[in-house]
Amino acid sequence: MKRAKVNRVLNKIPLHAITILILIIWIVPTLGLLITSFRPVSSINTSGWWTFLSAPEGDTPRFTLDNYIDSLVGYRGNHTYREDCAAGTQALDLHCNLSDLLNPRGMGRAFLNSLLVTLPAVVLPILFAAFAGYAFAWLDFKGRYLLFAILVGLQVVPLQMTLVPILRIYAKLGLNGTFLGVWLFHTGFGMPYAIYLMRNFLGSLPKDLFESAYLDGASHWTAFRKLAIPLAMPAIASLTIFQFLWVWNDLLVALVFLGGTKPVMTYQISNMVTSLGAGWQLLTAAAFLSMLLPMIIFFALQRFFVRGMLAGAVKG
Amino acid sequence: MAKPRVSAVMKQGKLTPWLYLLPALIVMSFFIVYPMINTVALSFQNKDSTASAATTCRDTGPCWGIFENYRYALTAELDTTSLQSTWQSFWTSSYGNTLKWIAFMVSGTVILGLLIAVLVDRVKYEPLAKAIIFMPMAISFVGAGVIWKFMYSFGTGQVQIGLLNAIITGLGFDPVPFLSTVGLNTFMLIVVGVWMWTGFCMTVLSSALKSVPGELLEAARIDGASEIQVFFRIMLPIISPTVVVVITTMVINVLKLFDIVYVMTGGNFNTQVIANRMYTEMYKNFQTGRGTAIAVILILAIVPFIFMNIKRFMAQEAMR
Amino acid sequence: MKKQTLVILSVLMVFAFVLAACGPTATEPTEEMVETEEVVTSEIDCMGAQAGDEINMLYQWSGGEEENLNNILRPFVEACGVVINPESTRDQALLDTRVQAGTPPDITFWNVTQLTQYQDSLIPMTDLGVHEENYADYWKSIGTVDGVWLGLPVKADPKTLVWYSPAEFSAAGYDVPTTWDELDALVEQMVADGVVPWSLGMESGDATGWTGTDFIQDIMLVQQGPEYVMGIIDGTIPYNDPGVKAAWETYGKWAMSDMYTVGGAAGTVSIGFNDAILKVFSTPPEAMMVKQSGFAGGTVLETYADLVFGEGYGFFGVPGAQGLQGGSDWMMSFSDSDAVKALVAYLSSNLGGETWAQVGFDLTPNMGGASAYTDPALLKKAEILANATGFTPDIGDSIPGGFGSAEFAGITEYVNGGDLDSILDNLAEVQAEALAQ
Questions:
Q1: Does residue A46 lie in a domain region?
Q2: Subunits touching B (CB < 8 Å, at least 3 pairs)?
Q3: CB nearest A33 (choices: B137, B147, B314)
Q4: Considering only CB atoms, which chain C residues are within 8 Å of B156?
Q5: Alpha-helical segments (H) within C119-209
Q6: Does B23 sit behind a cis peptide bond, omega within 30 degrees of 0 on the bond before it?
Q7: Which phi and psi angles does C329 have, rounded to 5°?
Q8: Tens of pLDDT along C351-386?
Q9: Preferred mutation among B286, B287, B290, B292 to probe C, highest tally of C CBs within 10 A
Q10: Residues in chain B within 8 Å Cβ distance of C205
């Protein structure tokens, strides 16, 4: 008995070793960015980020929160926010107190705009795709193969090709610069992939499940609501994560259909760097700030990636 | 072969499927199908869309009439003086590079994604591990572009701010200009792509792995199967539809991917890929006709994968 | 479980809706009414614009650059009460999309190539109340397409400058050269003394090569003159002309050898242009000189904030250049509303020129601001600009279509060891094709 236990532990060591090795290699670049975001700009350009523990010359500090502070308030000058406030030379729209967190040029307000753009643009396509996916998987109708083929093909249409024709129509419909316009666009554009994934997942569910439901007198609508959707939660969770990420990190669509007067986070971030690349140390901090919500969503949805969702359903 | 039927048990109205499909169809026709038709139409015109493409023919060369933009898209990068030069220039053209990307990035992300999904399935710190692999996707290319500068940076002074070159010089060799060395650079860019997208494959494959019933795996292990056998004989066949989906989706993503190349090398030093070339023609050279022709070629490139998917679709239904 | 998630999501959505609705949505740069220095607002003619009129503006500037623009526009905004809706992007795709879809911004500050590209949609400057007298003829002619003056040059950044460390020069006993031969001799002297004269890095992502093509154009300004360069731009001189080849070879001699430049050919091709600037001012310096645009001063100060202009860092004009090459930003308008007219009038007036110069947002082609600079570096550049007999925009920026990127690819190939004649022949073809349409 003891040998079996020891064996099992020993068997696990290679598993852990390989896994941890992969994780370390994977995290190194991200770690580099994280460390860089805490370094003052003069150190960034002159020494490698892995040297961050050795003290630099002069009185430049080893670490600083300035990159984060500057990105949060949307600082635009040549020094740092704290230096300017200390010297009294801050820009006219900064007041050197907490209200600067809501500065239109900062990340605070842009966060809300990004949220407002993203949430409906995630819910709508998944909703429509769930319906369509079920239809492709479990309903019989003429033209399913052709339609499905077109669907797969539509995923390749490049984004840039759709901008001008859609913008023209939006201008006529008055949807230009509205949130509704952006939501509809993201919904439309995200559909092919969403349907593709949903159809595949729903189609791989066991036939017996649905047969016994139909035999019990359930309509398609009931089967869809009570069986298909709950069982498809892992797929829905994946889709939510990806669609959220895609819309959250998008810049071009927001800029074309919403405009710069309702800035989203990606827009603010892109504005932190001048044409010549000055200020890019702010990007390092901004990238992490922007990454927080998607990662929270990722963690929150992890509980849908649990084995055995099907087990109870088959037996019951 | 006879078309497989869906379960005959359930009666359904003729209208039912279309009701389920309607919202999706409306939205997609408007936002994707209509622009796509527009794109195809533009690909037969000149750069201002004011006349047919045939008018852009030059006297000094071959002319394909209304397909002139396609002639440019397909042959402009090739050196057609001899068979050998055509072959060699193909491999440094956007087509050759895209093929390399498809081959290496798709296999890289899918294999790694699968491997990692299987590995972390069995460790207690699974959510954390998955988060680490997934994080590059969340960072988006704004941040990623900066990160990889710190990995590949090439310095000529004493100080290297790029990690790879720091290791190389630490070992006593000369630093390598990764992004400007033809041949090597495409692979360095592919590494960035794999680093970013493996999280995607891992997430989807992991959700598929979770739906493999636990009892099946336990039974197999009790019967004495080794882990490798369990993986290849039980897990893989069950999740194979999802693997096909992931491969297809990754091929599509690689075909559309242009920001890595755009931000890091701009397609210079023979790193050009189709999607970046389309972007360059449209927005740097202001050649709408050529840009849309390249886009159409891109769309057509997916056709073989459509066939593969339909076949799977039909096989899956036949098995039910 | 599922219900909870839905509830949380809906609450978040409602929350976001409410907050977004309550907060102001526009990002007007000058919302507050702030007292500034004495502004003679009576000098600003609002051309009938009413307070509250809006101008939608699109430009490439961001960060500190946007601050500068806001400071320049402040007197105008305060005097006329016009509301500015700014958008900032460097993505050409956005501007093209907006114009093609029929929803362009009212004004855009963009590159000179766009004047030709959008010429059918732009309103002539002369219809917008521009003060012609403040602009030299060569500026007007660059901004004129098919006889119509379509673009107002608002910002100029001469590139024909060589940056160096005066402290290092005097320590080594070098004098600033005033003729090209003196520069050549100085380079040879530096090599003999065992230091590296040039820092020629040209890596820049998808625009790698531009510092090289800039330098070659400056060499052409020395060897041939501004009319020659304009001839290339309008196509009368093919790119494989012997004069062009001579310039490339002069550059190549320096760029491909590690005696003359840091890292030799490999260094030229892979050192970033910002890093290349910094190499002249590090301790110890890796090179003595870098030929670069005006922005280099800012780059130096960002990393070496303690240096003083004129001592730790400085520049001299490329000796022997018979004109200046430079980057320029142009204002072009798709709308002829009163507010736009007022803006054009303001920017082209003496007050506009002075304000631009005082803010120090590079040089202003508006002669009204010629003596109002406060920054010593800008003053010096303004002098060089004032004495120029011609101003040539960048060849790559001015020839439409793929010429610019072909030029970059060509020079990178050349430095990597490619055959110069075939490269130049190819570029001549691209030039011909681009200009033929």
A1: no
A2: A, C
A3: B147
A4: 262-263, 267, 271, 279, 286
A5: 137-142, 166-172, 180-192
A6: no
A7: -110, 135
A8: 999 999 999 898 899 988 888 898 888 888 888 888
A9: B286
A10: 262-266
Both tokens of residue A133? 């996916």
Which 92-151 residues of chain C touch chain B by CB within 8 A?
Answer: 92-93, 96, 117
- Distance in Å, alpha carbon of A181 to nearest chain B alpha carbon: 11
**Whole-prediction pTM value?**
0.80
Residues A198 and A260 in one domain: yes
Please check the confidence at residue C31 and state whether its pLDDT lies above 70: no
Instruction: Tell me the chain B residues in contact with residue C413 when contact means C-beta distances shorter than 8 Å.
Output: none
C126 touches chain A (CB under 8 A): no
Domain assignment present for B30? no
CATH number, domain of A236, equals: 1.10.3720.10
Determine the distance in angstroms separating the CA of A186 from the nearest CA of chain C, rounded to an integer.
17
Give the contacts of B190 (CB within 8 A, at least 6 positions apart): B100, B101, B104, B105, B108
| pLDDT number for residue A183 | 94
Sorted by sequence, the CB contacts under 8 Å of residue C306 that are 6+ apart come out as C312
Nearest CA to CA, how far is A102 from chain B (Å)? 23
Cross-chain residue pair A93–C91, CB shorter than 8 Å: no
> Which of A108-122, A244-258, B48-62, B121-135 is predicted with the least confidence, judged by mean pLDDT?
B48-62
Q: Please judge whether C401 and B287 are an interchain contact, meaning their C-beta atoms are less than 8 angstroms apart.
A: yes
Chains B and C form CB pairs within 8 A to the count of 75
Which stretches of C37-91 are DSSP H helices?
Answer: 64-80
Cβ-Cβ contacts under 8 Å, C302 against chain A? 41-42, 78, 278
Q: Are residues A27 and A176 in the same domain?
A: no
* % of chain B surpassing 70 pLDDT: 93
Reduced to 3 states, what is the DSSP secondary structure of residue C29? coil
Look at chain B and report how many structural domains it folds into: 1
pLDDT of residue C174: 93
The nearest alpha carbon in chain A to B113 belongs to A22
Two tokens at A190?
């995200």
Are the C-beta atoms of C16 and A112 separated by less than 8 Å?
A: yes
Longest dimension (CA), chain B: 77
Q: Which residues contact A149 (CB under 8 A, 6 or more apart)?
A: B306, B309, B310
Residue C197 belongs to a domain with what CATH number?
3.40.190.10
Tokens of B69: 């933009």
Widest CA span in chain C: 81
Q: Render pLDDT for A27-61 as a digit per residue (tens, 0 to 9).
A: 988 888 888 888 887 777 667 777 777 766 666 77
Domain hosting B282: range is: 84-319
- Which residues are within 8 A (CB) of A245 and not within 5 positions of it... i.e. 6 or more apart? A294, B137, B138, B140
Q: To the nearest whole angstrom, how far is the Cα of B293 from the nearest Cα of chain C?
A: 16
* Dihedral angle over CA of C276, C281, C286, C290, nearest 10: 50
C291 bridge partner residues? C162
Where is pLDDT greater, at A112 or C397? A112
**What's the pLDDT tens digit per position in B39-69?**
999 999 888 777 887 887 777 778 888 888 8
Q: Assess whether A73 and A130 both reside in one domain.
A: no
Same domain as A13, residue A161: no
Cβ contact, residue pair B302, A155, below 8 Å: yes
Residue C95 inside a domain? The answer is yes
C264 near C286, Cβ under 8 Å? no
Would an 8 Å CB–CB cutoff place A173 in contact with chain B? no
Longest dimension (CA), chain A: 80
Compute the distance between CA of residue B179 and CA of residue B183 in angstroms, rounded to an integer: 9
B contact test, residue of A11, A13, A26 with most B CBs within 10 A:
A26
State whether residue C116 sits within 8 Å of chain A by CB: no
How many other CB atoms are found less than 10 A from the CB of residue B73? Answer: 27
Question: Is there a single domain that holds both residue A79 and residue A187?
Answer: no
